[in-house]
Amino acid sequence: MADYWYVDVYRYYTDSSYARPRKIVDKLKLDWLDAGSMYCSPEVVFFNKEQLQERSGWTEEEVRLLFFDKRVPTCNFGRKEVIEVHALIEFFAKKERILRNQELYWDSLDHDRIARLQNL
Q1: How far apart are CA 26 and CA 76, in angstroms?
Q2: Contact residues for 89 (Cβ-Cβ < 8 A; gap 6+)
Q3: CB neighbours of 68 closer than 8 A, spacing ≥ 6?
Q4: What is the pLDDT along the chain (120 residues), one digit of tens a residue?
Q5: In angstroms, rounded to a whole number, what is the distance separating the alpha carbons of residues 86 and 97?
């Protein structure tokens, strides 16, 4: 089974039907939620797609793609797909950490040396 977290859609070729939704989800920010107080809270708070769209200001497509993303820990409650607030916060924290690590990795490479080796 593939680890969806470590598929770098920015530097390796991936099918556009996979890369486009992934890039949209990667651009989403969790700046609308008071993550510090929600994460420390013992309350179990679930958001369905409509509640998440209303509170976040994201478009319907962005929320739909977020729930469709295999990295996002959603679950079914009755017939509705929901996400728990602590899991949502952890998803965004992990996403930012992995994207930053990918950037640091690519920035650390000697791009001049790679270009010279490709021209041999």
Answers
A1: 23
A2: 30, 33, 35, 38, 39
A3: 21
A4: 567 887 888 877 778 888 899 999 999 998 888 877 777 778 889 999 999 999 999 999 999 999 999 999 999 998 899 999 999 999 999 999 999 988 888 888 776 766 666 676
A5: 17
Do 86 and 39 touch, CB atoms closer than 8 A?
yes
Give the position of tokens 């420390």.
40
pTM of the model: 0.79
Strands lying side by side in the sheet with 74-77: 46-48, 80-84, 74-77
Task: Provide CB contacts within 8 A for 39, sequence distance 6+.
Answer: 85, 86, 89
**Rounded Cα gap, residues 17 and 23, in angstroms:** 11
| Cβ-Cβ contacts under 8 Å for 102 (sequence gap 6 or more) | 8, 10, 11
